[in-house]
Amino acid sequence: MTQRITVPGPLKGGPPPPPRLALDGYTWREIAHLLANLPVSLIGFTYAVTAPLTGACLTVTVIGFPLLAAGLLGARQLGKLERARARALLGVRVEEPTPLPLLGRAGRRVGLVQRLWMALKDPVGWRTVLYEFIRLPWGILTFTVTFVSLFLLWPVLPFIARWLTNVDRAMVRGLLSPSDELERRIAELESGRGVVVDTAAADLRRIERDLHDGAQARLVNLAMGLGLAKEKLLEDPDSAAAMVEEAHGEVKLALQELRDLARGIHPAVLTDRGLDAALSAVATRCTVPVKVTVDLGTRPAAAIEGIAYFTVSELLQNISKHSGAKSASVDVWRADERLLIQVRDDGRGGARLDGGGGMAGLAERLGAVDGLFVIDSPAGGPTTITAELPWRDREDKTRGM
């Protein structure tokens, strides 16, 4: 026969039950926590003095910063043990902080110097060190009061234990909770801003180069040709007519190049008709048959729409050039507050972030706007690339009119 045991509310993360004169199981766990405060705080204080503090004092030497970083990483582990103790004995549910990243935005492994710097500025480690310093006098006080109360103040011991452990709960929530996400997010946004600036500068250089080498050069030749045709208009009408005909062809080519350039900046069909029509137009230029499915009830913000368009456009170019596929598909849909894009092909596979084709650049661009970029491309195929962008609603231009 299996017996189902119901765990009291506090261990599920709810508030502790009101203290009672009788010593129930929950009160005994609180007493055990208070009595363990002294040895645990002695260990934590000793570690904080010998590792992080020693490393901080030696920062004038070569070994100081690595020692300090190692001490802060160890402090993270002490914080993990303290959260587990509070969870088991006090019913305090505190989420674990996010681990320090091992991979950069483009999927490259973080270097040793960068990891050292991330450990040195890690707010989780520093708050844990502060926690260990504060805990020693508190541990001595709580151990002494609880030990004396066991023999002298037995009737009111449940109330004393509750008052003391409430302070412990506040310390754990205040210093060991993962509020570092705000600091981490700020650092990520600063890094993403740099990626956006670099990307914008590269796009401007590309536009300038395309104008200089393409349409501008063609228009210069056109002007020269029309000038020669004007001079020969009376002397040699046939040659002038041939020159005008040639200039007419140059005009057509220049207009086509300008259209292609404008499409590369922001296609008119995307502005006028949205992702469905724009991606369908891109698919017709792919050398592989592409099935496009766009399931969006509304249009996202123009910036998100543009990133989605150029991501799919570059992926389809890669399929044309490198995949050897016979067919491909593009699916776009919304899931809660995210815009999902999935591009598949039945080609040879083997696509990687570091394998060229602009994959690393796409990953960096999406990461800069809090997006994700995942490649699933085993050797022999098929290849599935999933991109995820934050959903932001398009502003209503008629608002306020």
Features:
401 residues; alpha+beta; 5 strands; 62% helix; disordered C terminus
Task: Write up what this structure looks like.
With 401 residues, this protein is an alpha+beta fold. 62% of the residues lie in helices and 9% in strands. It has helices at residues 25-57, 64-90, 112-120, 123-152, 157-175, 180-231, 237-265, 268-273, 275-284, 302-323, 359-368; strands at residues 290-295, 328-335, 338-345, 372-376, 383-390. The protein has a five-stranded mixed beta sheet with strand order 1-2-3-5-4. Helix 2 crosses helix 4 (123-152) and helix 2 runs antiparallel to helix 5 (157-175). The longest helix has 52 residues, at 180-231. It is elongated and about 125 Å long. The model is unreliable at 1-13, 103-107 and 396-401 (pLDDT under 50).
**Approximate shape:** elongated
H/E topology pattern: HHHHHHHHHEHEEHEE
Distance between the termini: 72 Å
The counted number of beta strands is 5
Low-confidence stretches: 1-13, 103-107, 396-401
- Relative strand content: 5-15%
The largest pleated sheet is described as: 5 strands, mixed
Q: Roughly what is the average pLDDT, rounded to an integer?
A: 76
| Share in helix | 55-70%
Which structural category fits the helices and strands? alpha+beta
Rg is: 33 Å
Query: Strands across the major sheet, in which order?
Result: 1-2-3-5-4
